[in-house]
Amino acid sequence: AQSVTQPDIHITVSEGASLELRCNYSYGATPYLFWYVQSPGQGLQLLLKYFSGDTLVQGIKGFEAEFKRSQSSFNLRKPSVHWSDAAEYFCAVGVRSNDYKLSFGAGTTVTVRA
Amino acid sequence: EAQVTQNPRYLITVTGKKLTVTCSQNMNHEYMSWYRQDPGLGLRQIYYSMNVEVTDKGDVPEGYKVSRKEKRNFPLILESPSPNQTSLYFCASSFRDAGNRGQPQHFGDGTRLSIL
Asked: Which among A78, A95, B79, B94 could bridge B105 via Cys, Cβ 3.0 to 4.6 Å?
């Protein structure tokens, strides 16, 4: 079965600084990969997704992620964070044999300091 | 406005008292699913539905029931709630894209259930 690890439980970053959130997955084949963001008191919003092709994926809100097969990783990046980026971020992996199933990581909470 | 609407948003109840959490989407999506979110565990899928009258179990279906009689609605039923079902619940929906992939794209705002 597939699984996802987000090694960082909590990250603090200064406004205007760059952000990178780590995501490692375990799956025998090429998975589908997703990043979601959850603002306090709200549901999840899909930031970006990778199915195949170009390994650098652009998403909404200025985020991008890079799929690295050799490292089983799908790290999320943003060059310059805004205070509104403070939220919890979830990486998720899907499998090609079941289009409806996602396995989520435990999440990384991002705090943005002024 | 595209929406997934869950009700209630908050509920405190007692063990064994049947409850239903409703979920409705206005996007004509085929796929709907229920997740529970617990600290340190991320989201875990309870049930999903590929279309009307088609449902299947996710990772943690025990103690839950669902039905999909209409495309827009996907209620979650707890027949006899227990304290270990205290959690934050999310409903999600998605359309079938060109690759026939139905992973969740739109989430409701969540329902916080406390079972005493």
From this structure: B94
